[in-house]
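Hi, here's the filled form for the chain we discussed.

Project: internal
Contact: R.S.
Residues: 239
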Amino acid sequence: MRVDKLLANSGYGSRKEVKSLLKGKQVTLNGIVIKDGSTHVNPDTDNVEVNNKKVSYEKYIYLMMNKPQGCLSATKDARDKTVIDLLGDEEKTYQPFPVGRLDKDTEGLLLLTNDGQLAHELTSPKKDVKKRYYAKINGEVFDGHVKLFQEGLVLKDGYHAKPAWLEIIQSGTTSEIIVTITEGKYHQVKRMFEAVDRKVLYLKRLEMGELQLDKSLSLGAYRPLTEQEKAYCFSIKRK
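And the returned structure, exactly as it came back:
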C-alpha cells in the first residue's frame, strides 16, 4: 500500500494534508524519514510513524447511518445526491459502499462499509437476515393481511415472497405498521403492500439483523459501529 493512502485511511487528513506531512519530514518508515507519498509499505510489518507516534491502520470501516429521504443508496450518481456524499473526507478515503439498498424516499438504518465479504453475507438470501421496518400505509390494515404476509405473498409480477411478519400499530384511513422481512428485493415492502391493494406512504428501516438504528442519530448523520455491533457483523461472516 502507498504510504499516502495508508495515512489518509488512518485519519491523518486528505491527500493534500498528508502530502504536507511528508514534505515537512514528519513521517518515518522503520525509523527513516520519507517524503515520497508513493512509497509502498506493508501495514502489517512496517513501522510507520507521524511525529514519533505509531500509525494504527484499520483496513475496514463500518458505519451506521440514519439515511434521509432524497438520497440514493449508491456510491455515485450523475444527478442525485448519494449516501456517500454525506460522509466526511476521512471516511471517503476508505471507499465505503452501502450494504443493500434503501429506496430514495426511504429513511433509516443503513450500514456502510468497504468489507465486501460482510456485505455479501448480510444481503445473501441464504442468511435470512431480518430487516424490520416502520411504515405508514394508505388504507386500513387488518388481521387478514397479517395472515397473508405470514403465508408469503404473491406479488403482482408473480414473484412469491418469503413469509413476513406484520404487526399493526394502528389501523384506519392511514395505518401504522411494523413489518419484518428476510429479503431485500427491489421495492420489497412497497410491492408487498401493493399486492394487497395498499400503498406505502412512509417507510423507515429500524433494524437489520441485530443492528438497531441509533435513535440519537439525526437524519443524514452517521457513526462508527460499536465493538458489540462489529462483533455481531463478524459472527455473520463466520457462519
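Let me know if anything looks off before we file it.
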